Amino acid sequence: MPGRNSKSRDVIWVRGMRLGGGGRHDPEVQGRIKRSKRTRGSGTVKDPKVIWLYFNRERSEAYFRAVEALVKKLTTECGLSHAWIMSRVHSFSTIGRTNDARIMCHDDFHITIRMGSSQDICNLQGHLYLICEDNDVDGKPVRLMNDDERGIIGGKNPHLWIWGQYPAESRDWPRAGVRYPKAPYEIIGGSILDAHSDFMPSGISHPVQIIKF
User: Is residue 103 within a helix (H) or strand (E), and if so which, with residue range?
Assistant: First the structure.
């Protein structure tokens, strides 16, 4: 799901790689950040600041804290100080766009996040896959999903891409050497995803096409 505004949209990032200089958020996201209703953390690598761009007041405080703890853990491991939660926990991913719709297919439960080195700079974007209570997408997240629990062949956790400027590939700036699955995804029989792949996402406010493979 590389962002449309990323100048290095195809560069996969894994822990151990160097971080680039990053880039500013697009104007639409900057506006959402200003309107954020919930922020937690001091903005250091040890205590990253988590900013919610999607906020549902009907969720419990325990739910919010559970998500924040998992996001903070990843952000610290990546050596960054800020994280932006871009979405609720959901079970679908955008695989393309038409003039008036997003083309989507089923995916493991995850949130869409961005992480950065300051309140103004984003360095990474991607998906953080979660295990939720009762294997329910609306349940409280309890932990990060392991790679071998992914319901898509070749899936990893997390899936991260570079945001902003990143040097050309060289000895000093090697690439990850891994690939993420591309649509059409192959769903693993008996996985959590396989058990939920007949359910369609709800609460979508923009035109969507659901593609089932």
Answer: strand 102-116
